[in-house]
């Protein structure tokens, strides 16, 4: 986690002897206290991690395709697709905490609220920045402190479960703020601009990949050809539509397999595969192991 943080998000410490004060991490999660100006690299989103920032003081500015944006503390930012985050700059008064988690852990934590947040996902993805009130900050800081405390408890036999449950509480807090912000909006799915192909594809993929595995289905919803859709995605993400769908489907498969109540057959049915053999073939092709072996190693 430290390597990802310092090669993709944070500039190196000023000297080898400088202490990593306020930074704690393991293979699942990392909390990195940052302050002052010029602390960030460009920031690189990948499929293995989720990254968010709790801003406590100062200002962060970043370059977006439509222009430069400045965000004032207190705020919460989720660095998510489809945005291309570049040229992150902070002022001298800036103070915040960068939270990085393994994507699988985050998806497990967020699984419980997926049906309720689906109508708002697209709108939030367009502007994943939240202005926080004082009581919001207080509640979120408590949860960050709990995460920090449990990351330090390396001998705790239930560390994974505690981190997952605390992360789930954090996700619920963030989405409660989002719901409060959007409370005047209709609970129906937002009207999506048809010319906004990439964000709409990502929205559809994350909410429908369990049920629809083919590029053609997504292309039909977007009124474009499969080749045109893949060309746009390759230009933006250097991956085809099929690659992105398979990655998302693999995430869903791993989440389901992590549930001890589900058999491999149950997971195959939940993910709408023709049968267990088809699911096992898909899973092994993309992970190098069978779903049964994946469950046994947990």
From TrEMBL:
Keywords (A to Z) from UniProt: DNA-binding, Transcription, Transcription regulation
Keyword Transcription: yes
SUPFAM superfamilies with a match to the protein in the record: Homeodomain-like
UniProt xrefs under Pfam families: HTH_18 (PF12833)
Alphabetized InterPro entries for the sequence: Homeodomain-like_sf (IPR009057), HTH_AraC (IPR018060)
Coiled-coil blocks: none
Superkingdom assignment: Bacteria
Domain (HTH araC/xylS-type) ranges: 199-297
Name of the protein this chain belongs to: Helix-turn-helix transcriptional regulator
Source species: Bacteroides mediterraneensis
Lineage: Bacteria, Pseudomonadati, Bacteroidota, Bacteroidia, Bacteroidales
């Amino acid at each position: 986690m430290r390597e990802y943080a310092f090669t993709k998000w944070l500039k190196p410490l000023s000297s080898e002897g400088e202490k990593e004060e306020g930074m704690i991490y393991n293979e699942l999660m990392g909390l990195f206290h940052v302050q002052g100006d010029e602390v960030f690299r460009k920031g690189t989103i990948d499929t293995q991690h989720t990254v968010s920032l709790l801003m406590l003081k100062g200002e962060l500015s970043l370059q977006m395709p439509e222009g430069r944006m400045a965000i004032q503390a207190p705020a919460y930012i989720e660095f998510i697709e489809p945005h291309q985050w570049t040229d992150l700059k902070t002022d001298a008064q800036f103070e915040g905490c960068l939270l990085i988690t393994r994507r699988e852990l985050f998806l497990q934590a967020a699984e419980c609220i997926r049906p309720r947040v689906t109508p708002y996902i697209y709108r939030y993805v367009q502007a994943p920045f939240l202005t926080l009130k004082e009581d919001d900050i207080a509640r979120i800081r408590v949860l960050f402190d709990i995460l920090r405390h449990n990351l330090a408890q390396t001998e705790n036999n239930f560390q994974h479960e505690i981190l997952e449950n605390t992360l789930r509480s954090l996700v619920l807090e963030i989405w409660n703020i989002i719901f409060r912000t959007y409370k005047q909006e209709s609970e129906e799915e937002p009207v999506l601009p048809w010319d906004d192909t990439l964000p709409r594809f990502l929205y559809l993929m994350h909410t429908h990949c369990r049920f629809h595995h083919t590029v053609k289905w997504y292309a039909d919803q977007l009124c474009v050809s499969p080749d045109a859709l893949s060309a746009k995605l390759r230009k933006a993400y250097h991956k085809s539509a099929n690659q992105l769908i398979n990655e998302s489907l693999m995430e869903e498969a791993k989440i389901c397999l992590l549930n001890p109540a589900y058999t491999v057959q149950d997971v195959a049915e939940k993910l709408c595969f023709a049968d267990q053999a088809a699911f096992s073939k898909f899973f092994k092709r993309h992970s190098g192991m069978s779903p049964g072996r994946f469950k046994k190693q947990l």
